[in-house]
Amino acid sequence: MREIQAAELPDIATGAALLGTGGGGDPYLGRLLVRREYLRGRTVSLLDVGELPDDALVIPAAGMGAPTVRVEKLPNGDEASTAFRMLERHLGRRADATMPVECGGSNSMVPLLVGAQLGLPVVDADGMGRAFPELQMQTFGVYGISGSPLAFSGSHGERGVLDTGTDNVRLERLARGVTVRLGGTVSIAQFAMSAADVRRTAIPGTLSLALRIGRCLRESRERYRDPFAALTELFKETAYAYATPVFSGRIVDVERRTTGGFARGTATIESFVDNSVLELAFQNEHLVARVDGRIRVIVPDLITVLNAETAEPITTEALRYGLRVTVFAIAAPPIMRTPEALAVFGPRAFGIDADFTGVEELA
Length: 363
Description:
Strand content: 25-35%
InterPro entries: S-Me-THD-like_C (IPR048350), S-Me-THD_C_sf (IPR024071), S-Me-THD_N (IPR010318), S-Me-THD_N_sf (IPR027479)
Protein name: DUF917 domain-containing protein
Pfam family, one: S-Me-THD_C
Number of helices: 12
Oligomer: single chain
Structural class: alpha+beta
Organism: Amycolatopsis samaneae
CATH superfamily of the largest domain: CV3147-like domain
Shape: globular
Number of domains: 2
Largest sheet: 7 strands, antiparallel
């Protein structure tokens, strides 16, 4: 276990935003909330799940809702800890640690915020290895952990607990309805589990990987090196194994709408060098990238949009006409490519009429 330094927060937020595939919330907002706790004299420690005894209780914490709303409807900062304490009271037991449910610029920061406020360590792992739009789309649920009970907290004092037993899909539907009624965003605590179950179902090392990614991008700029080449090399040393730029160009159209608690839409990018066009479809996160109608990357592999010069990640709510971008693809870890996992968050789970093929094959 080691203490996360305040100076590391920007790198973690940047790296998590890149892994977040366009979703997971605004990285700037997330790190500001944690930074405020550090200015108050609080800190947070990161630990490997192997450091916890098997029966230790771990409760993940996150924000839920459309990222377009969260940018405009800023949180008070204590909603996540309120939801966390509610779930502890409901379970009749204090947690030994918290952790992210997903990678994302803001959602990777939420457990750090909870950890700093409540004096809890944060487990270096998560349940997606990226970000997904729906609660059931986690390796926790794929491999047998129930998302119930789920505690939620809104920005005006609303709070409650939802329990649908082992039905994580129904939990998503009910929690999404509550989120919409509360203005499109809430904080949640769910998937309470033992450390033994975290070791069995989680994707390890994702917070420390986010730190490495953010540091890689920052140092590449400082040393005037190609950040995309540096990223490609970095991922070779990880469980993701394969990463590559797939397209560079200028955004010429963005169609985006906030509906049903999600930000849905498409972005169209024209190539810098020829007449090729990449169309990107998203539901909070990027789901499929097609170049001239041909699939180049598809969920659950990671599709992230980066600034063409700096490689800074651009979230779906920040996509704008005229931005010069590079679409960067990353292979999902093996735990996310099993038949069980693809049934929950593969292409057909999003209504995409295509089977999954890895980016290393499509490229």
